[in-house]
């Protein structure tokens, strides 16, 4: 079960009012960004033309934000979560997801220092799907 404190509820309310979308989840990540997970099919509306909604929300909250569109397909959800990085292939096998990389630079960005980015991605994905993530 997801629990929100008063501050996150305020962020959600502001975000939903400006973007006219529904928030599925909201949290603050390790980079002190407010991450909004919007319902499936509402990602582009949440961002707005020329990212106008992102700019408005960032100005009002005085924090950087990230918008992730939820998807029932775990591979699509991971693609949305790691955007703007593009993985050439995401393979789903039973309860394991393999993210294939074509460069060491992309692999380094996905892993992060002390595997911090991978741990954060794993925690995010495991809120909705019970899978292990591996990067090759």
Helix content: 40-55%
Strand and helix order: HEEHHEHEEHHE
Output mean pLDDT: 90
Care to count the β-strands?
6
Per DSSP, what share of the residues sits in E-state strands of 2 or more residues? 15-25%
CATH hierarchy, class of the largest domain: Alpha Beta
What does this 3D model show about the protein?
- This protein is of the alpha/beta class.
- The protein folds into two domains: 6-69, GMP Synthetase, Chain A, domain 3 (2-Layer Sandwich); 74-135, GMP Synthetase, Chain A, domain 3 (2-Layer Sandwich).
- The protein contains six helices and six strands, in the order αββααβαββααβ.
- It has helices spanning 6-19, 43-47, 52-61, 74-82, 104-111, 116-126; strands at residues 23-28, 34-38, 65-69, 89-93, 96-100, 132-135.
- A three-stranded mixed sheet has the order 1-2-3. Strands 4-5-6 form a three-stranded mixed sheet, with helices on one face.
- 19% of the residues are buried.
Question: Care to give the gist of this entry?
Answer:
The chain has 136 residues and is of the alpha/beta class. The protein has helices at residues 6-19, 43-47, 52-61, 74-82, 104-111, 116-126, and strands spanning 23-28, 34-38, 65-69, 89-93, 96-100, 132-135. 42% of the residues lie in helices and 22% in strands.
Main features:
single chain; 136 residues; alpha/beta; GMP Synthetase, Chain A, domain 3; 3-stranded mixed β-sheet; 6 helices; 6 strands; 42% helix
């Amino acid at each position: 079960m997801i629990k929100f404190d008063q501050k996150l509820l305020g962020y959600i309310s502001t975000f939903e009012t400006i973007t006219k979308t529904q928030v599925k989840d909201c949290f603050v990540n390790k980079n002190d960004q407010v991450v909004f997970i919007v319902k499936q099919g509402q990602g582009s509306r949440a961002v707005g033309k020329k990212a106008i909604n992102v700019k408005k929300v960032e100005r009002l909250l005085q924090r950087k934000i990230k918008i992730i569109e939820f998807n029932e397909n775990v591979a699509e959800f991971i693609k949305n979560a790691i955007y703007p990085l593009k993985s050439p292939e995401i393979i789903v096998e039973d309860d394991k997801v393999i993210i294939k990389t074509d460069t060491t630079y992309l692999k380094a960005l996905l892993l992060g220092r002390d595997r911090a980015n991978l741990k954060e991605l794993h925690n995010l994905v495991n809120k909705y799907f019970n899978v292990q993530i591996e990067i090759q």
